[in-house]
Design a protein that fits this description.
The chain is mostly helical. Helix content is 75%, strand content 0%. The chain has 5 helices and no strands.
């Protein structure tokens, strides 16, 4: 009975198959867009330090956690256990909520930018908002498919 459940696609892949299976393929895109958010927030002038501090925390936390999970999945640390499927679903849901909050706050901070900021600095913040929403979308899609995998595990 257990081999049938494993062949149903309810377990986590390991090795380079992580890069070829959906939704785990999204790790790469989360890594790239999360890194772009991190870089853009770090290089932009800060209109509201508390808001952009939160955005920076979320982007760095998710970047490090996503990288860690990707490496752990690639080396097969999960051993095919269902507890890792639960961990994956929980992390993706938390990351999606964190990125949604960061995206909304960064968009708000960009909207209220006023005197003292150049056109270039405004565009850096707009780029950070766009990439933050793309990262949010990626984490939401990954969370939905991770929850489907978790339910079938």
């Amino acid at each position: 009975m257990a081999p049938a459940a494993a062949s149903g696609g309810s377990t986590l892949p390991s090795g380079f198959s992580v890069l070829a299976t959906f939704p785990d393929l999204l790790f790469i895109f989360e890594f790239v867009f999360g890194g772009l958010v991190w870089i853009l927030i770090a290089s932009s002038l800060v209109p509201i330090p508390m808001v952009q501090g939160w955005v920076m925390f979320v982007s760095v936390f998710c970047f490090v956690a996503t990288t860690t999970l990707l490496v752990l999945y690639m080396i097969g640390a999960h051993g095919g256990e269902t507890s890792w499927v639960t961990l994956d679903a929980a992390y993706q849901c938390v990351a999606a909520l964190l990125y949604l909050s960061a995206s909304v706050l960064e968009a708000w901070a960009t909207i209220i930018m006023h005197d003292g900021f150049t056109y270039k600095q405004y565009h850096e913040n707009i780029s950070a908002v766009v990439f933050s929403y793309v990262a949010t979308l990626l984490y939401v899609v990954h969370a939905v498919f991770s929850l489907i995998r978790w339910k079938s595990a």
